[in-house]
Amino acid sequence: MSRENLVRWIPWKSEDAVLMQGSESWNIAKEIRKHVGDLTCVDSIEMYLNHCEEKFDVILLTNVLKHSGDLCGSTEVLLSCKNKLRDGGRIIITCDNPLGMRYWAGMSQGNENDGETSFFASLQGETTEISKYEFTKKELEQMIQDAGLAYEEFYYPYPNTTYPMAIYSDSYLPHKGELNINNYYMGVTHMELFDETKAFDTIISQGMFPFFSNSYMVMLHK
Description:
There is one protein chain. The protein has eight helices and seven strands, in the order H-E-H-E-H-E-H-E-H-H-E-E-H-H-E. By secondary structure, it is of the alpha/beta class. Helix 4 links the parallel strand 3 and strand 4 (85-96).
């Protein structure tokens, strides 16, 4: 499984100037560097934007937006990014979904490095260090609207943003039987409460996949 699949399909331009937060995304940065002329990786996009005067064609926010009790903090980050876009520029957001299928199926949402195991936390309205960086589709849509940005459609990395083996979209949603990768829990405590493929098939048949997708990706423009 290869994380760079998350960005490999994007139509990059050799003249693109790209900004991304790269502390844990070196393989994504390595892939982008193959296609663009200027890539800037920083530890904190929010802090960097407060002090830089440069503008960018693409700003990549890969699982870095954070809940701060409400959506205001993340909306402010989007506004800062918006002000640093060149004409025709894009902001690309990826994040995981706190209501994603994997959590219903029994994946822990705790930080195992800290000895924390937490099942069903976000499903019950609880917050963990991991869920702080997760947003539902409705929350993303609200942030995008509040920041005065627009998008064409949502994309759905499957099975998630860490191990994306397929990228679905609003114009090409998955069909029954296609979501059959259930071995992506490497290094994460989990239970197997039901067959995820069968559960996804039911959700797909009811047109509800976008709300239970494990992950989201969306490209924004002014």
